[in-house]
Structure formats: C-alpha cells, structure tokens
Amino acid sequence: MIKLLTASKGIVLGVVIILLTLVALCIFVIIYKLIQISQAQSQSVSFLDRFWDSKRLDDIYRVAEGLKYSPLAAMFRAGYVELSKVKKGGGDGESMHAKMEDTANIERSLQRAKVSEMTKLETLLPFLATTGAAAPFIGLFGTVWGIMDAFLAIAAKGSAELSEISQPIAEALVTTALALLSAVPAVVAFNYFNRRLKVLNAEMSTFGSDYLNIIRRHFF
User: Fold this and answer.
1) What residues contact 16, with CB distance under 8 A and at least 6 apart?
2) SS3 121
C-alpha cells in the first residue's frame, strides 16, 4: 500500500493527498467528539444527581458552575440567572399576567441555552457526514483517472504486457481503498454521535420541563 501511494503521480497523487487529509481529519474529529460528548453526558449525570438531592437553588448553581461541559448545567445557570433578574425586577408580581410573563421569560432563557448547547455539541458532525458522502466519489474519480491513464499508455505503445499495466491500475485502485478508509468510519461515527446527541437532547427537554415546573411551584 505504501509503495502504491508513493508511486502515485499527477491527478491521482492529488486525489491521494486529499483522501489522506480526510482520513487524518476524520480521526481527529472522531476522537474530539468522543471526548466532548462523553464529558457532556458524564457531567450531566453528576449534575442531575446533585440537582435532585439538593434543596436550594443557589447550592445547585455553585455545583453547576463547576460543570462546564454539561448542557443541563448550562440550562440551569441560564434559568437561574433569569429567575434572579425577575425577582430583582419587582413589579406587580402578584398579578396573573405578570406571573405568566415572568415564567415565559425563564422558559425562553432555558430554550436559548438548550439551542446554544446543542449547537456546540453538533459542531463538526456535518464534516463527518460530508466526508462519508463525498469521499467515495473522490476516490472513484482518482481510480477512473488512473485507469484512463493506464489505457492511454497502452494505446500509445500499441500493445502492452499485463505486468506493464498492473502497476498503474493498482495505483489507481488504491484511491478507492483510501476513500473507503475515510468514508466508512465517518458514516459510522456520525450515526453513533447523532444517536447520543438525540439522547442528550431528550434529557435536556425533560430537564427543562421539570426545572420550569419547580420554579412555577415554588416562586410563582
């Protein structure tokens, strides 16, 4: 494989360089996303344990400040800050309209935090999806071009032995192997991370509803 890669030239060499770059980037993205999502899930589990065990929101807020990678902690901090603003704002806090408006403000802050955290967690996932879709076609282009060069060389000579054309054809086919080497892990990783993010998204939605219900029950 290494000999075939180093023997590549021209357009095929360019395709090989592109595919090797995609392989390296895919490895980096997969490792990075695995660490990021694992941290988000593990810290969210820790936060939920503290959230349901504690009786005071200010104690939970101090815990949430130390869990920087947890999307649930980020949602709690956003809701806590908005609740503090509402309570400091004063106004006609006893009217039904004021209570509904204050609750809506907190709900919007939770939703904004959720969207922001999901955006962070979904970063670089489109790259994996794009690589999985485009890499096979890039490899196919390199293969077709290499085989075309091999047959053009045969046409120029008028005839050729199998031993003479096997090398350039093998060099062309190696681009397909490289394409699969980048595309298959990218697709598998994308589906795996997407599944884990769906679970996290559901947990964030559930937490947001529970948190809002607690605020309504105790503060409004």
Assistant:
1) 5, 8, 142, 174, 175, 178
2) helix
- Residue 127 phi/psi, 5-degree rounding, is -65, -40
- b/e code 188-200 from CB counts within 10 Å (16+ = b): ebbeebeebbeeb
The structural domain count of the chain equals 1
Domain housing 121:
1-219
| Whole-number Å distance between alpha carbons of 51 and 58 | 11
> What does pTM read for this prediction?
0.85
Q: For residue 187, is it left (φ>0), alpha (ψ between -120 and 50) or beta?
A: alpha
Q: What's the CA angle centered on 9, arms 8 and 11, to 5 degrees?
A: 110
Q: Rounded mean pLDDT of the chain?
A: 88
CA–CA gap between residue 109 and residue 217 (Å, rounded): 18
pLDDT tens digits for 17-28? Answer: 899 999 999 999
